[in-house]
């Protein structure tokens, strides 16, 4: 049967709400009639046009009372669905719900071990975190909101089949409930930052779900719940003993690192440039946070050189091994090989993904121990220079000295027995290939000298690098002489 539209729909909605409001007073409807009326109202409420009575104060109050005061779980869930749709479609209804004072009952309902209740109530509270006066600290301190969220995450972690992360398929309702719980966790920790410690117990379950949940096989690997799991790492405190034990377990110190790197590798093969900012940037930021808080020995070097890996620094070593350029990458200019580090470096200057490229640059700076010398060694001065300039980090003289040594083939140009590397491109010097070009004419040499002179003068003015213009130096040393005009005329003759 086709639903009415226009004024007929408005009249039908008004009659349904009047019937339900009257039922709150006199209980004249049978349970089946009550549920049928709410189901019909839900269908009308999906489109707010000509459904105005649903979004009024009286309409929200009626739905709220059925949602939280009904003795029937079925009736309550029917009302919750209509209420969630209303709060989603009309932002002004969220404050109306908050003013009714039902947040405590919502938190109590969230304790139920039921995925429908978890999904609906989590979404309801989530929607009230936008543009309302809801008192989140009060819900955490007095109504155990944090405890309920942690308990729901624990239930999801317990139900995941261990050792079947590549083949198992989760139930749809369970997946939807998990996604809403994770979104609620992110918003509450974002808007109630002083109470983040109340959620310390969530990280062991987040780590378990992240690692044990079936690995995404779709073309969009950061679909729920992985995108929401990653977002939680950006808000929670990773320095607590519980967090350290969960994210860097002594028995499997690289477990979480492997999953994050696997997701990144899959994401970099799946998402186009236009989606990198929104979809992949949070994962890059999460990897930075994960790396910074990972246990590390003081003598660990954040470079591509080989270091001793112990349980204390295994997570960091695994991330560096996966993301820093390898010998394979350095056979050509960095960013040209078909590897994960090269795919990341290729996006360093991507104009379509400014947030992503900034996140990648900061990640590599973290992987370099936040040391400018190591940073240049790891990615090459060509990539590093822009980041250092934007963040007002001076280029150490050691970088320039090493560059000159390598260009001159002097002592110390390949420390530790490593092959010489072009400090600008990051490529091994003995792998560089140059085109066989004819010797430049005198006029071409003069133009090139003038161009270099201008470039070095501009570079000096930025203050990023303190270096003498080589053309100016050559003139001072008498190695360049200006030819008189007669020479040009003689040549023409």
Automatic annotation (TrEMBL):
Got a GO cellular component term for this one?
A: cytoplasm
Pfam families from the UniProt entry:
Ric8
Q: Which UniProt keywords apply?
A: Chaperone, Guanine-nucleotide releasing factor
InterPro entries hit by this protein: ARM-type_fold, Gua_nucleotide_exch_fac_Ric8
Give the residues annotated as coiled coil.
Answer: none
Q: Where is the composition biased (Acidic residues)?
A: 483-493
Where are the annotated segments for Disordered?
A: 399-432, 470-493
KW Chaperone (keyword) present: yes
Q: Where is the signal peptide?
A: none
Highest taxon above the source species: Eukaryota
Q: Name one GO biological process term.
A: G protein-coupled receptor signaling pathway
Supply one GO molecular-function term.
Answer: guanyl-nucleotide exchange factor activity
User: Family per UniProt?
Assistant: Belongs to the synembryn family.
Protein's UniProt name: Guanine nucleotide exchange factor synembryn-like protein
What is the phylogenetic placement of the source species in the record? Eukaryota, Fungi, Dikarya, Ascomycota, Pezizomycotina
């Amino acid at each position: 049967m086709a639903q009415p539209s226009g004024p007929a729909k408005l009249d039908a909605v008004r009659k349904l709400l009047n019937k339900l409001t009257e039922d709150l007073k006199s209980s004249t409807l049978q349970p089946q009639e009550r549920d049928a009326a709410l189901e019909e109202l839900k269908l009308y409420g999906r489109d707010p046009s000509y459904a105005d009575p649903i979004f009024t104060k009286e309409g929200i109050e009626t739905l709220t009372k059925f949602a939280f005061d009904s003795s029937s779980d079925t009736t309550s869930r029917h009302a919750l669905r209509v209420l969630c749709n209303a709060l989603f479609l009309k932002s002004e209804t969220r404050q109306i719900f908050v003013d009714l004072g039902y947040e405590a009952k919502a938190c109590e309902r969230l304790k139920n071990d039921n995925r429908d209740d978890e999904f609906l109530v989590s979404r309801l509270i989530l929607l009230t975190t936008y543009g309302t006066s809801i008192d989140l600290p009060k819900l955490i301190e007095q109504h155990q909101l944090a405890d309920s969220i942690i308990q729901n995450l624990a239930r999801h972690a317990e139900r995941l089949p261990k050792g079947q992360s590549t083949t198992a398929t989760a139930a749809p309702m369970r997946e939807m409930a998990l996604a809403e719980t994770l979104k609620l966790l992110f918003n509450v920790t974002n808007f109630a930052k002083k109470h983040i410690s109340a959620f310390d117990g969530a990280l062991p379950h987040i780590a378990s779900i992240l690692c044990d949940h079936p690995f995404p096989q779709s073309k969009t690997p950061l679909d729920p719940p992985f995108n929401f799991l990653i977002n939680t790492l950006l808000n929670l405190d990773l320095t607590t003993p519980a967090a350290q034990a969960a994210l860097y377990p002594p028995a499997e110190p690289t477990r979480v690192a492997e999953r994050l790197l696997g997701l990144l590798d899959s994401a970099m093969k799946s998402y186009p440039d236009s989606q990198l900012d929104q979809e992949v940037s949070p994962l890059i930021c999460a990897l930075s946070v994960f790396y910074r808080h990972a246990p590390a020995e003081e003598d660990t070097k954040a470079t591509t050189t080989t270091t001793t890996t112990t349980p204390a620094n295994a997570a960091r070593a695994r991330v560096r091994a996966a993301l820093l350029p390898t010998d394979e990458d350095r056979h050509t200019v960095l960013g040209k090989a078909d590897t994960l580090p090269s795919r990341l470096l290729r996006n360093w200057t991507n104009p379509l993904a400014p947030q992503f490229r900034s996140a990648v640059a900061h990640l590599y700076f973290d992987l370099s121990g936040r040391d400018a010398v190591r940073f240049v060694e790891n990615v090459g001065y060509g990539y590093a220079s822009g980041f250092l300039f934007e963040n007002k980090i001076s280029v150490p003289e050691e970088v320039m000295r090493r560059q000159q040594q390598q260009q001159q083939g002097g002592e110390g140009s390949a420390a530790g027995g490593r092959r010489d590397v072009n400090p600008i491109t990051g490529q091994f010097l003995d792998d560089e290939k140059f085109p066989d070009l004819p010797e430049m004419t005198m006029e071409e040499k003069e133009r090139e000298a003038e161009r270099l002179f201008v470039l070095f003068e501009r570079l000096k003015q930025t203050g990023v690098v303190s270096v003498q213009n080589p053309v100016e130096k050559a003139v001072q040393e008498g190695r360049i002489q200006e030819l008189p005009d007669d020479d040009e005329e003689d040549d023409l003759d």
